[in-house]
Design brief:
Number of helices: 15
Strand content: 15-25%
Number of strands: 18
Structural class: alpha/beta
Radius of gyration: 21 Å
Helix content: 40-55%
CATH class of the largest domain: Alpha Beta
Shape: globular
CATH architecture of the largest domain: Alpha-Beta Barrel
Largest sheet: 9 strands, mixed
Distance between the termini: 43 Å
CATH superfamily of the largest domain: Metal-dependent hydrolases
Length: 457
């Protein structure tokens, strides 16, 4: 279909998202360029804009594009990895045997292919915005530009950062800090001239200052990263207390738990993402709340690594903003929501535990997180918000209402139902066909690079 400045998605069941979602049967969403113009019934919207292009969504579900609050695109070529990888008995061994070997082996071509292949998976599963955390310890300079340009070509909105660490020595650490600083300046210059779209469009690109985790970072590195983030008006993006080893290291270094240590170095704040926060205590939850720091829950990855499960109900009860990510484990936020629904009930032995949690994290909190990082309303169908919309082939045997929508998310919706994806008003997939890049060529190249990467490991 042609790109149009005015497009109406008409006839489907429209779910607005947001803290107080609306459900409109036989509804319509007007897209005016890169923003949502209006919501209403089909008759009302179509009659008010008779010259607009129409995309018929009769019998479909129309909802905001999903946001992934923490992922690692660089892991895309590790799926089905065939290499001489020693079995790992704990989390630190998983890092040493697999992920730190992988990030040192990545070439610029691998980084590009990982981002391109990962973008296809995300779009096909209805994700329109990601917050990515990148590592490629041998190829650092310019790596974030490669990711950003690749995602932009595919049509994804992204916040991108480089994982700074002291584990590979001072030269690699310094290069990582420089890459974050250089990329942040690049993003600021794009924003000043209207990003890649028309002036006033919601930005497609944002930056954070990436950090690996407390146990691979010296105090001086934390200070420099926090200073850089403050200078640029950004937050940090760091794994926090994912495993008990992180806590033990922090206590051994300075007698403080991980969140306490990060607070003392100036790392926390409203734009900082503290990923996982599994092994945090009540005092640390209070610090996260008072600093307005973002926490991101990644249940599938945590289960896979056998590191435990964050006390998300406790974090929410204490007033912490908690979002949902996949940590690179999957491209499907629908799958992640299903697991988030189940894991807290299972751990508590109480079917009441975590009621309403997946929708709050993914459909509400992630929109708040994106707004903090991009400075625009994203993840909600509301006039003036970014025109990020997905259409699903979902025509259930039971009614969809504002009160039961989360039940449909958990027990009905899946990523393979996503048919059409629109980001910033641009149709990037229609009828499951990617329109922005040659998907077959992307995947063929990714398979070539995967074999070469596995061989180098």
């Amino acid at each position: 279909m042609r790109e149009s400045s005015t497009l109406i998605l008409a006839g489907g069941t429209v779910v607005s998202g947001g803290a107080e979602p609306r459900v409109i049967q036989d509804g319509a969403v007007l897209l005016e360029g890169a923003r949502i113009g209006r919501l209403g019934t089909r008759d009302d919207v179509v009659s008010a804009f008779p010259d607009a292009e129409i995309l018929d969504t009769t019998g479909k579900l129309v909802m905001p594009g999903l946001i992934n609050a923490h992922t690692h695109l660089y892991s895309a070529l590790a799926r089905g990895l065939s290499a001489d990888i020693e079995p790992s008995a704990n989390f630190t061994e998983i890092l040493e045997h697999l992920w730190w070997r992988l990030d040192r082996a990545l070439t610029i071509d691998d980084i590009r292919s990982s981002a391109a292949a990962g973008a296809l998976d995300l779009i096909r599963n209805g994700t329109t915005t990601i917050i990515d955390h990148h590592a490629s310890q041998v190829n650092i300079d310019g790596s974030l530009d490669v990711i950003a340009s690749t995602l932009e070509s595919a049509g994804l909105r992204a916040n991108v950062c480089f994982e700074v660490t002291d584990r590979d020595g001072p030269n690699v650490r310094d290069a990582g800090l420089r890459e974050n600083e250089r990329f942040a300046a690049h993003v600021a210059s794009r924003t000043a001239v209207g990003d890649a779209g028309s002036p006033g469009d919601p930005p497609m690109l944002a930056a954070s200052v990436g950090l690996h985790a407390s146990f691979t970072l010296d105090d001086g590195t934390l200070d420099r990263a926090a200073g850089l983030a403050s200078e640029r008006g950004l937050g940090c993006h760091i794994h926090v207390a994912e495993d008990r080893a992180d806590v033990e290291d922090s206590l051994g270094r300075c007698g403080k738990r991980v969140v306490e240590r990060l607070e003392s170095r100036g790392v926390l704040g409203p734009r900082t993402i503290a990923v996982h926060c599994i092994h945090v205590d009540e005092r640390e939850r209070g610090i996260l709340r008072d600093a307005e720091t973002i926490v991101v829950h990644n249940p599938q990855s945590n289960m896979n690594n056998a590191v435990g499960c964050a006390d998300v109900p406790g974090l929410l009860a204490d007033g912490v903003l908690v979002g949902l990510g996949t940590d690179g484990f999957t491209a499907s936020m629908f799958d992640e929501m299903k697991v988030a629904n189940l894991i807290h009930r299972d751990r508590a032995g109480d079917p009441r535990a975590g009621h309403g949690l997946p929708g709050k994290l993914c459909l509400t909190s992630n929109a708040t997180i994106a707004e903090r990082l991009f400075g625009e309303r994203i993840g909600v169908l509301s006039p003036g918000a970014a025109a990020d919309v997905i259409v699903l082939a979902y025509d259930p045997p039971t009614p969809v209402t504002a009160g039961n929508f989360e039940g449909h998310v958990i027990f009905g919706l899946t990523g393979w139902m996503v048919e059409t994806v629109i980001v910033n008003g641009r149709v990037v997939m229609r009828d499951r066909e990617i329109l922005t890049v040659d998907a077959e060529a992307v995947l063929a190249r990714a398979r070539e690079r995967a074999l070469a990467l596995w061989g180098s490991m």
